[in-house]
Amino acid sequence: MRVSVDCINKSDSNLSIAINFAYPFRLNQVEFDVPMCEGRRQERLYLIGDFSSSAEFFVTIAVFSFLYSLLATVVYIFFQNKYRENNRGPLIDFIVTVVFSFMWLVSSSAWAKGLSDVKAATDPDEVVLLVSACKVQTNKCSSLYGPRWSGLNTSVVFGYLNFVLWAGNIWFVFKETGWHKGGAARYPASSLEKQTTAFNQQVYNQGSFDQSGATFTGTGDFAQSEYSQVGNYSSSGPISYTNQ
Protein backbone atom coordinates (compact mmCIF):
# COMPACT_ATOMS: atom_id res chain seq x y z
CA MET A 1 0.00 0.00 0.00
CA ARG A 2 0.99 3.63 -0.34
CA VAL A 3 0.28 6.68 1.78
CA SER A 4 1.20 10.34 1.41
CA VAL A 5 2.22 12.97 3.93
CA ASP A 6 1.76 16.54 2.71
CA CYS A 7 3.53 18.93 5.07
CA ILE A 8 2.84 22.62 5.30
CA ASN A 9 6.42 23.02 4.13
CA LYS A 10 6.25 21.32 0.74
CA SER A 11 9.94 20.52 0.74
CA ASP A 12 9.42 18.20 3.70
CA SER A 13 6.51 16.33 2.14
CA ASN A 14 6.58 12.75 0.88
CA LEU A 15 3.62 12.07 -1.37
CA SER A 16 4.36 8.40 -2.05
CA ILE A 17 5.36 6.22 0.88
CA ALA A 18 5.40 2.50 0.02
CA ILE A 19 4.60 0.01 2.76
CA ASN A 20 5.19 -3.58 1.68
CA PHE A 21 4.22 -6.68 3.67
CA ALA A 22 3.82 -10.33 2.79
CA TYR A 23 3.69 -13.87 4.18
CA PRO A 24 4.06 -14.80 7.02
CA PHE A 25 2.56 -11.42 7.98
CA ARG A 26 4.76 -10.45 10.90
CA LEU A 27 3.56 -6.88 10.61
CA ASN A 28 5.42 -5.73 13.68
CA GLN A 29 8.62 -6.28 11.68
CA VAL A 30 7.48 -4.22 8.68
CA GLU A 31 9.14 -0.82 8.85
CA PHE A 32 8.74 2.36 6.82
CA ASP A 33 10.06 5.91 7.06
CA VAL A 34 7.80 8.97 7.08
CA PRO A 35 8.59 12.70 7.31
CA MET A 36 8.01 14.51 10.57
CA CYS A 37 7.41 17.83 8.78
CA GLU A 38 10.15 19.38 10.92
CA GLY A 39 12.93 20.16 8.54
CA ARG A 40 14.40 17.04 7.00
CA ARG A 41 13.74 14.84 9.94
CA GLN A 42 12.10 11.44 9.47
CA GLU A 43 10.77 8.83 11.81
CA ARG A 44 10.74 5.06 11.41
CA LEU A 45 7.43 3.36 12.11
CA TYR A 46 6.26 -0.26 12.30
CA LEU A 47 2.93 -1.84 11.58
CA ILE A 48 1.03 -3.44 14.43
CA GLY A 49 0.42 -7.16 14.95
CA ASP A 50 1.94 -10.59 14.32
CA PHE A 51 -0.32 -12.97 12.42
CA SER A 52 2.30 -15.49 11.37
CA SER A 53 0.96 -18.35 13.50
CA SER A 54 -2.35 -18.76 11.68
CA ALA A 55 -0.78 -18.19 8.27
CA GLU A 56 2.03 -20.69 8.83
CA PHE A 57 -0.37 -23.25 10.31
CA PHE A 58 -2.57 -22.99 7.24
CA VAL A 59 0.36 -23.40 4.85
CA THR A 60 1.79 -26.31 6.87
CA ILE A 61 -1.46 -28.26 6.66
CA ALA A 62 -1.63 -27.55 2.93
CA VAL A 63 1.91 -28.81 2.31
CA PHE A 64 1.56 -31.99 4.38
CA SER A 65 -1.82 -32.85 2.88
CA PHE A 66 -0.36 -32.41 -0.61
CA LEU A 67 2.57 -34.71 0.21
CA TYR A 68 0.26 -37.32 1.69
CA SER A 69 -1.96 -37.16 -1.39
CA LEU A 70 1.06 -37.90 -3.58
CA LEU A 71 2.10 -40.79 -1.33
CA ALA A 72 -1.42 -42.24 -1.30
CA THR A 73 -1.63 -41.97 -5.09
CA VAL A 74 1.61 -43.95 -5.47
CA VAL A 75 0.35 -46.63 -3.07
CA TYR A 76 -3.01 -46.91 -4.83
CA ILE A 77 -1.41 -47.33 -8.24
CA PHE A 78 1.73 -49.39 -7.63
CA PHE A 79 1.13 -51.15 -4.30
CA GLN A 80 -2.56 -51.98 -4.45
CA ASN A 81 -2.01 -55.65 -3.55
CA LYS A 82 -0.01 -54.85 -0.42
CA TYR A 83 -2.54 -52.17 0.47
CA ARG A 84 -5.31 -54.80 0.51
CA GLU A 85 -3.34 -57.61 2.18
CA ASN A 86 -4.67 -56.75 5.62
CA ASN A 87 -6.82 -54.11 7.22
CA ARG A 88 -3.88 -52.03 8.45
CA GLY A 89 -3.37 -50.02 5.25
CA PRO A 90 -7.02 -48.92 4.80
CA LEU A 91 -7.32 -48.27 8.53
CA ILE A 92 -4.29 -45.95 8.58
CA ASP A 93 -5.57 -44.24 5.44
CA PHE A 94 -8.96 -43.73 7.07
CA ILE A 95 -7.52 -42.25 10.27
CA VAL A 96 -5.17 -39.89 8.38
CA THR A 97 -8.03 -38.72 6.16
CA VAL A 98 -10.19 -37.92 9.19
CA VAL A 99 -7.31 -36.02 10.83
CA PHE A 100 -6.57 -33.98 7.72
CA SER A 101 -10.26 -33.17 7.28
CA PHE A 102 -10.38 -31.79 10.82
CA MET A 103 -7.08 -29.94 10.35
CA TRP A 104 -8.33 -28.31 7.14
CA LEU A 105 -11.38 -27.01 8.98
CA VAL A 106 -9.35 -25.68 11.90
CA SER A 107 -6.56 -24.13 9.81
CA SER A 108 -8.99 -22.52 7.37
CA SER A 109 -10.99 -20.99 10.20
CA ALA A 110 -7.81 -19.76 11.91
CA TRP A 111 -6.47 -18.27 8.71
CA ALA A 112 -9.83 -16.60 7.94
CA LYS A 113 -9.68 -14.91 11.35
CA GLY A 114 -6.01 -14.04 10.85
CA LEU A 115 -6.69 -12.54 7.44
CA SER A 116 -9.45 -10.41 8.91
CA ASP A 117 -7.01 -9.10 11.50
CA VAL A 118 -4.37 -8.42 8.84
CA LYS A 119 -6.89 -6.38 6.86
CA ALA A 120 -7.72 -4.33 9.94
CA ALA A 121 -4.06 -3.75 10.82
CA THR A 122 -3.15 -2.65 7.29
CA ASP A 123 -6.10 -0.39 6.66
CA PRO A 124 -4.46 2.72 5.12
CA ASP A 125 -6.66 5.04 7.13
CA GLU A 126 -5.48 3.34 10.33
CA VAL A 127 -1.83 3.33 9.25
CA VAL A 128 -1.94 7.08 8.63
CA LEU A 129 -2.88 7.58 12.28
CA LEU A 130 0.49 6.11 13.29
CA VAL A 131 2.30 9.06 11.68
CA SER A 132 2.97 11.81 14.21
CA ALA A 133 2.97 14.52 11.51
CA CYS A 134 -0.58 13.57 10.58
CA LYS A 135 -1.77 14.55 14.04
CA VAL A 136 -1.06 18.18 13.21
CA GLN A 137 -4.03 19.74 11.49
CA THR A 138 -1.90 21.84 9.14
CA ASN A 139 -0.46 18.70 7.58
CA LYS A 140 -2.50 16.56 5.24
CA CYS A 141 -2.16 12.79 5.17
CA SER A 142 -4.03 10.39 2.92
CA SER A 143 -3.87 6.89 1.46
CA LEU A 144 -3.10 6.51 -2.23
CA TYR A 145 -4.24 2.89 -2.50
CA GLY A 146 -4.65 -0.07 -0.19
CA PRO A 147 -3.56 -3.71 -0.40
CA ARG A 148 -5.13 -6.14 -2.86
CA TRP A 149 -6.85 -8.97 -1.04
CA SER A 150 -8.11 -11.11 -3.92
CA GLY A 151 -5.33 -13.70 -3.67
CA LEU A 152 -5.61 -14.06 0.10
CA ASN A 153 -9.40 -14.26 -0.03
CA THR A 154 -9.08 -17.04 -2.60
CA SER A 155 -6.77 -18.96 -0.27
CA VAL A 156 -9.44 -18.98 2.43
CA VAL A 157 -12.07 -20.22 -0.03
CA PHE A 158 -9.79 -23.01 -1.23
CA GLY A 159 -9.06 -23.92 2.37
CA TYR A 160 -12.73 -24.64 3.04
CA LEU A 161 -13.05 -26.41 -0.31
CA ASN A 162 -10.20 -28.69 0.76
CA PHE A 163 -12.10 -29.45 3.95
CA VAL A 164 -15.16 -30.46 1.93
CA LEU A 165 -13.00 -32.57 -0.38
CA TRP A 166 -11.22 -34.45 2.39
CA ALA A 167 -14.40 -34.88 4.43
CA GLY A 168 -16.17 -36.36 1.41
CA ASN A 169 -13.24 -38.71 0.85
CA ILE A 170 -13.76 -40.21 4.32
CA TRP A 171 -16.63 -42.34 3.02
CA PHE A 172 -14.63 -43.78 0.13
CA VAL A 173 -11.72 -44.66 2.40
CA PHE A 174 -14.10 -46.13 5.00
CA LYS A 175 -15.44 -48.58 2.42
CA GLU A 176 -11.93 -50.05 2.10
CA THR A 177 -11.68 -50.83 5.82
CA GLY A 178 -12.70 -54.06 7.50
CA TRP A 179 -15.39 -52.23 9.46
CA HIS A 180 -17.47 -51.60 6.35
CA LYS A 181 -16.74 -54.99 4.77
CA GLY A 182 -17.58 -56.83 7.99
CA GLY A 183 -20.91 -55.05 8.27
CA ALA A 184 -21.72 -55.70 4.62
CA ALA A 185 -20.96 -59.41 5.04
CA ARG A 186 -23.34 -59.81 7.98
CA TYR A 187 -26.46 -58.45 6.32
CA PRO A 188 -26.58 -60.87 3.33
CA ALA A 189 -26.17 -63.85 5.69
CA SER A 190 -29.03 -62.66 7.84
CA SER A 191 -31.21 -62.13 4.78
CA LEU A 192 -30.42 -65.62 3.45
CA GLU A 193 -31.27 -67.15 6.81
CA LYS A 194 -34.64 -65.40 6.84
CA GLN A 195 -35.41 -66.59 3.31
CA THR A 196 -34.51 -70.20 4.20
CA THR A 197 -36.69 -70.14 7.31
CA ALA A 198 -39.62 -68.73 5.35
CA PHE A 199 -39.21 -71.40 2.67
CA ASN A 200 -39.14 -74.25 5.19
CA GLN A 201 -42.21 -72.86 6.93
CA GLN A 202 -44.04 -72.69 3.62
CA VAL A 203 -43.24 -76.32 2.78
CA TYR A 204 -44.24 -77.47 6.25
CA ASN A 205 -47.59 -75.69 6.06
CA GLN A 206 -48.33 -77.03 2.61
CA GLY A 207 -48.03 -80.62 3.81
CA SER A 208 -47.97 -82.22 0.38
CA PHE A 209 -45.37 -83.34 -2.06
CA ASP A 210 -46.26 -84.18 -5.66
CA GLN A 211 -44.19 -86.37 -7.89
CA SER A 212 -45.00 -88.02 -11.20
CA GLY A 213 -46.30 -91.47 -10.51
CA ALA A 214 -47.10 -90.91 -6.78
CA THR A 215 -48.89 -88.48 -4.42
CA PHE A 216 -48.15 -87.98 -0.71
CA THR A 217 -50.80 -86.14 1.31
CA GLY A 218 -50.78 -84.72 4.83
CA THR A 219 -53.11 -87.54 6.02
CA GLY A 220 -50.50 -90.17 5.37
CA ASP A 221 -52.30 -91.88 2.48
CA PHE A 222 -50.19 -93.10 -0.34
CA ALA A 223 -51.94 -93.73 -3.63
CA GLN A 224 -50.10 -94.98 -6.63
CA SER A 225 -51.19 -93.63 -9.93
CA GLU A 226 -52.57 -95.73 -12.62
CA TYR A 227 -50.41 -98.78 -13.17
CA SER A 228 -51.18 -101.51 -15.62
CA GLN A 229 -49.14 -104.45 -16.51
CA VAL A 230 -49.50 -106.07 -19.85
CA GLY A 231 -47.53 -109.21 -20.37
CA ASN A 232 -47.05 -111.54 -23.33
CA TYR A 233 -45.67 -114.99 -22.81
CA SER A 234 -44.28 -117.22 -25.45
CA SER A 235 -42.21 -120.32 -25.25
CA SER A 236 -39.50 -118.94 -27.40
CA GLY A 237 -38.84 -115.67 -25.51
CA PRO A 238 -38.77 -113.92 -22.15
CA ILE A 239 -41.72 -112.25 -20.50
CA SER A 240 -42.25 -108.62 -21.58
CA TYR A 241 -43.78 -106.00 -19.25
CA THR A 242 -45.13 -102.66 -20.31
CA ASN A 243 -45.79 -99.97 -17.68
CA GLN A 244 -48.24 -97.28 -18.53
Q: Ranges with pLDDT <50 over ≥5 residues?
A: 184-192, 203-236
Radius of gyration: 43 Å
DSSP summary: helix tally: 6
In terms of quaternary structure, the protein is single chain
Structural class: alpha+beta
| Share of helical residues | 40-55%
Shape assignment? rod-shaped
The ordered string of helix (H) and strand (E) elements is EEEEHHHHEHHEEEEE
What percentage of amino acids are in beta strands? 15-25%
Number of strands: 10
Average pLDDT confidence is 80
Major β-sheet annotation:
3 strands, antiparallel
Strand order of the largest sheet: 2-1-5
Distance between the termini: 110 Å
Protein name: Synaptoporin isoform X4
Structure description:
- This protein has 244 residues and is an alpha+beta fold.
- It is built from six helices and ten strands.
- It has helices at 52-78, 80-83, 88-121, 124-128, 150-174, 178-206; strands at residues 2-6, 14-18, 31-35, 42-46, 140-145, 209-211, 214-216, 222-224, 229-234, 237-243.
- The strands form four sheets. Strands 2-1-5 form a three-stranded antiparallel β-sheet. A three-stranded antiparallel β-sheet has the order 6-7-8, with no helix packed on it.
- Helix 1 (52-78) packs antiparallel against helix 3 and helix 3 (88-121) packs antiparallel against helix 5.
- It comes from Danio rerio (Zebrafish).
- This is Synaptoporin isoform X4.
